[in-house]
Structures are given as C-alpha cells and as structure tokens.
Design a protein that fits this description.
heterodimer, A: 364 residues, ABC transporter involved in vitamin B12 uptake, BtuC, B: 305 residues, mainly alpha, 71% helix
Chain lengths: 364, 305
C-alpha cells in the first residue's frame, strides 16, 4: 500500500517540471523585459516607440511574421539536431560551422553543380541534399574522433565551427572558389545570386507572408526525429550509449556507429539549415553568412530540454526576438544589441535553474 | 627574408600573441580547477571596453587597466555562481555570458562614445628590458612591447611555480581531477573553483585591455572577435600545460602575423587559411595526433556534495 502511495506521488511530482519550466520561462522573460525597458529608457528613446518598433518588426505585418518564422526555422533545425545528439549525451556545439558548410555546398551546387536545369523541383532539392551530406560529413568527424580517440566532442565541434566559418570566408574571397567574377574594383566579396529555379518556392505565395518551403521541411524533419528518438531501435541505442557505453557494447550495440550517426545527423540538420537560409532568403553567399544562428540554435536546443515541441517553441521565440530587434534598431534607433542582452538573460536564467527544473520527485 | 623583416615579424608575432598569453594563463588555471570558462571571450571584451572607458574618464591608461581588471569581477562571479553553485552547464553559461558581454559593451560604447567614436584614448606605454633594449632590431622591433605583456609573463611564471610547488596549486589541480577527494580532505571545492574563475576573469580582462588600450588605443564593437576562443584552443594545443600553452599562443600569434607579412614578401596565401590555422592545429592536437591529450578529469563537471 505504502509502496503504491510513493509511486503515485512520484508520478505526480514528475508532471511538475512542465509547470516549473513555464514558471522559469515566464520569470526569465519578465526579468529580461524589465531590463530591456530600463535600457531603452537609458538610451533616451520613449519606451512605447521602441516597443512599437519591436512589435512592428516581429509581427506587425504578414511579411514581418513570415520573416520571423523563416528565421526561426534555422534555429529549429539546429536545435532538433542538438536534441538528437544530446540523447547520446553528445553536445553538438558545431551548428555555426555546419550552417556554413551547408551554405557552401548549397551555393556550389546551385551555381556550378548543374542543378539549375533539373526538373520536378530537383533544382532546389538536390542542393539541399548535398548540403545535408556535407554537413553530415562535417558532423561525423567529431563523432568518429570521440568514438575512436576519445576526443571531447564539445571542443572538436567548436574548433570545426571556426574552421568552417573561415572556410566560407575563403570561398567568398577567392574568385577561383565561389566569389562572383570580378568585373570592377567594387565587386563585393560574395557569390553570384543563385538561379531562380534553385530558390525555395513560397508557401501560400499570395498571402504576402513570404514563408518558404523550409517550413514544411523543418516540420517534417522535426516529426521524423521525434519518432526516431521515441520509437526506433536507433533511438534506443542512442540513449543506451549515452547512459552506459560499456553496457551498450555488451548488449551488442555498435557504439562507434551510433556516436558517428548521432553527430552526423545533427550535422546534416545544420547543413540543411544553411541550405534553407541560402535558398530561402539570402540567395547569395557572403562572409558572416551564418550570423551566429548556429549558437542561437544550440541555445534553442538546450532550452528545449530534450523535447522537439520545446525546440519549436524556443525557436519561434528567438525568431521573433531577432526580427523585432533588427527593426527596433532601424526605426527607433535603439541598438539591436539590446536584444542580445535580453537573449543572454533568458539563456542564463534558464541555464541557472536547470538543476531545479530537472529535479525529480525526491528532494535533493 | 632579411633581418629587418624578420625582426618586424617576430615583434608582431609577440604583439599578437600577448593578449592570448595573458588570457590563456588565467583560463588554464580555471580549467585545471575543473571549470571550462567559455566566457573568456566575453570577459576579454568587457575588460577591453572597461579599460577604454576608464582610461577615457580618468585620462590615465593605468587607471583604465585597473578599472577593466576589477570591473570584470561581477561577471566572473556570475559565471562562478552559475557553473559552480547552481551547477549549470558550463558551455551554455559561457555562451550566454559572451552574448551578454557583446550586447552590453556595444550598448554602453554607443551610449558613451556615440558621437565621438574616434576620441583619442590614453594608451599603455611600451617597455623593453634594460641591456637588451640597446641591441639593434631586437630592442627596437622585437622586445619593445606594451609593459603589460611583461607583467603577464611574470604572472605566468608565478602561476607555474604556484601550480607546481605550493599547497594551493596542488589543491587547484586536485579539484579539477577529483573534487570529491578535495572535499573529503576538508577543503572547499566551491571556494577553490570560485577563486580560479575570478582569476581567469581578471586575466581575460587584462588581455582585453592589452587589445584595446594597449594596441589600438580605442574600442570597437565586438573587437575581440574570437580571441577568447583562440585562448581556449591554445590550452588544448598546449595539452593543459602552462609552458606549452604559452608556446602555442606564440605559434598562433605568428600564424596571425604571417597574414600581414607574407604579402610583403610577395607570397599570396589566402588570409582565411592563416586565420584558420590555429584552430586546425588545435583540432589536430585534441584529436591526439600529437601525443596523448590529458584534459583535467573533472573538466566541465559540476560537483555536488
């Protein structure tokens, strides 16, 4: 009898974390908002004006809503990959680099890979697939290093990120790589614009939202990964390898393959994010292409606390915040750096309360 | 390559390596104590800004340096509180603090200097060791560096001695390998780790000041631009050993100096390749292709009693 009581209270308390997450989330956002308002005041801009500009940029028009959502797709893809790898207790800090690699691959295929002439939408699908492949290989390297040589994946994915970002810089600086042909001294160090056929088609094209096919791709991939994690043999071996590699090996699981696959899939999703950024709204590759989105995606993955639904929520939050911040700088002359501070407060509050959030029924 | 070019190259390698050497010395102590302080980038940036702000207000670069080094302590305390007391993920808190520092310094800089972004700010003096300063080229080009570098080297030596020869050093090393053993021996894991993080923050800020009031005598938004991450890479390349880390910094400095030097010699190498080189070297090192890497066993692992 008493056993059953204990069991039922544990179950009850375990339902708590959602409430606690909600509590912490709203607390973090409230504090961040307060700080933001104080900072707006200190810059000497009327708060109402700044907030109006923020709202306008984030959700003020169909176009703004579309732009915010398109932006959040990138965060979501990187976040989904992070959650998957995290199942095997692997931390993928390399999203930034995987976006860059995906962007390079997609640009190369769209411009010089002969994709322009392909029929049936293959013109934009093939570059995405190639970006996934390139990102996957880039992600597999740290997986292999970890499994075979015991290299800490946090460090190797971070280093590979920097390497990829400079690789992209190199590609757009060098005419023999992806830089557009130099016609005058003023030719910018960026690639040519990719052909129309390789650009992602818009969904609901007459609504003015400007949301592209990336939304569908991201949703499908999110569902697929959720199913993989919850329902498949591979998802189970991810968790087993994460909890106890030795036991997993004895149970006949391929540790190396699982680790490599986990980080390769995360890398592939990062690569797809890069392709979607390029083919969905940037249309040409420039230095600084990845714009810190990989780190935002990492944070989204962390905040989601292992839930794919959580990834989508956090990604939307970040997408709208980024868009609003950009508009606030343009219209109300409040530096967009303000959004960075707000974002940092949210990240730090959530990171700091992680122990409390994950505490199960028992008091520690 | 003639002697003069060589001397200029050596001098600029040291100049570019100096902030790295100072920041990585602090970071190394923190990592040895088991805290991967990823926010070294943000702390350098904060130090760089506070140094400039302090120097501009007081009209004195040395006061600026002091303000920079002391002003970063609250940020370091935040990092320590999150990663040691609240046992938060050190990578997340590091990235969070980096974002915070980038946002806050950009805002504060625009607020303070917005209209006069080219204001002349007093800078730290240069110094070269006596006796050697009279040697041609060596004295004028190679060793004529901002005095803070020499102070940094002194602190580096001191750290090497403390880590190897004193009870404090042994405790710090132990807390990064087996915090439980340290706790059971009656020492405070929390206090040791807090101390290490604060020290790493102050050194990072000093490195940042060297970038701003030492080298270019001004501040630009996001001016550290990855230097902090490079300091972490240097530690990996140096296999968590203090001397080797400093040598790794010099190597990274030389790689950066090459991008200005090679064009002078008529050699065309993509700049990106040279900037990428330190990260590539660190990756090769961490992959174990240069002998076994031995990171402190409890690095990034919070301790719970």
């Amino acid at each position: 009898m008493s056993h059953r009581v204990i069991k039922s209270t544990t179950v009850q308390r375990r339902a708590d974390p959602h409430l606690r997450t909600l509590l912490v989330m709203s607390g973090a956002i409230a504090v961040a908002m307060l700080v933001a308002i104080l900072m707006i005041l200190s810059v000497g801009v009327p708060v109402s004006e700044a907030l109006a500009a923020f709202a306008d940029g984030a959700w003020g028009s169909p176009y703004a809503i579309g732009a915010s959502i398109n932006r959040s797709l990138v965060f979501a893809l990187v976040g989904i990959g992070f959650v998957l790898a995290n199942r095997a207790r692997l931390t993928n800090v390399g999203g930034e680099g995987q976006i860059a690699i995906g962007g390079i691959a997609a640009t190369a295929m769209s411009l010089y890979g002969g994709c322009e002439e392909l029929p049936y939408g293959l013109a934009y699908i093939v570059p995405i697939l190639c970006a996934a492949l390139a990102g996957g290989i880039w992600g597999a390297i740290p997986g292999w290093l970890k499994a075979r040589l015991g290299t800490n994946e946090v460090i190797s994915t971070l280093l590979l990120s920097f390497i990829a970002v400079w690789l992209l810089y190199w590609c757009v600086q060098s005419v023999s790589l992806l830089r557009q042909p130099m016609t005058s001294g003023g030719t910018l160090p960026e690639s040519l614009t990719i052909p129309d056929t390789t650009q992602l088609p818009l969904l609901w094209s007459d609504s003015g939202l400007g949301i592209h096919l990336g939304l569908a791709i991201t949703l499908v991939l999110g569902i697929v990964v959720a199913v993989i994690i919850q329902r498949t043999r591979f998802g189970f071996s991810l968790r087993a390898v994460g909890y106890n590699p030795q036991a997993a090996r004895r149970a006949g699981m391929a540790i190396t393959w699982t680790m490599v696959a986990a980080l390769a899939i995360a890398g592939a999703l990062g690569g797809i994010a890069g392709a979607i950024m390029l083919q969905g709204d940037q249309y040409s590759l420039k230095a600084g292409f990845s714009s810190g989105y990989g780190f935002d995606g990492l944070v989204v993955g962390l905040l989601a606390r292992n839930s794919i639904t959580g990834v989508f929520v956090a990604a939307l939050l970040f997408g709208f915040m980024r868009s609003g911040g950009i508009n606030m700088e343009m219209v109300a002359q409040v530096p967009a750096a303000l959004v960075l501070v707000v974002q940092a407060i949210v990240i730090l509050t959530l990171a700091g309360s992680a122990i409390w959030l994950s505490r199960k029924g028992v008091k520690v | 390559m003639n002697m003069e070019l060589l001397a200029i190259f050596a001098g600029s390698s040291i100049r570019l390596a100096a902030p790295l050497i100072i920041a990585s010395t602090g970071e190394l102590i923190s990592e040895r104590a088991g805290v991967l302080n990823m926010s070294v980038e943000g702390m350098m940036l904060t130090g760089a800004f506070l140094g400039v702000a302090g120097a501009s207000i007081t009209g004195n670069a040395e006061w600026g340096l002091l303000i920079g080094v002391l002003g970063v302590i609250p940020l370091a305390l935040l990092q320590a509180f999150l990663s040691v007391t609240l046992r938060a993920n050190q990578i997340v808190t590091g990235i969070g603090i980096n974002i915070l520092a980038l946002g806050a310094t950009t805002l504060a800089y625009r607020e303070m200097f917005g209209a006069r972004s080219n204001a002349v700010i007093p800078g730290l003096d240069k110094w070269s060791p006596p006796l050697l300063r009279d040697v041609p080229l060596l004295g004028s080009e190679v060793l004529n560096q901002v005095w803070l570098l020499y102070l940094g080297l002194l602190i580096l030596l001191l750290c090497a001695v403390v880590m190897r020869r004193t009870a404090l050093g042994i405790s710090l090393n132990a807390v990064g390998v087996s915090p439980r053993a340290v706790d059971q021996s009656g020492l405070s894991v929390t206090r040791l780790r807090y101390g290490a993080v604060i020290f790493s923050g102050m050194m990072a800020a000093a490195g940042g000041c060297l970038l701003s009031i030492g080298n270019i005598h001004t501040f630009t938004e996001g001016m550290t631009n990855g230097t902090g991450y490079l300091a972490i890479a240097a530690i990996i390349f140096g296999n968590w050993k203090i001397g080797r880390t400093a040598l790794a910094c010099l190597l990274f400095g030389a790689a950066s100096a090459l991008q200005f030097q090679l064009p002078l010699l008529g050699i065309q190498v993509p700049t990106a390749l040279l900037i990428m080189l330190p990260y590539l070297l660190a990756l090769i090192a961490v992959a174990g292709l240069m002998g076994r890497q031995t990171a402190p066993a409890a690095l990034t692992q919070p301790y719970q009693r």
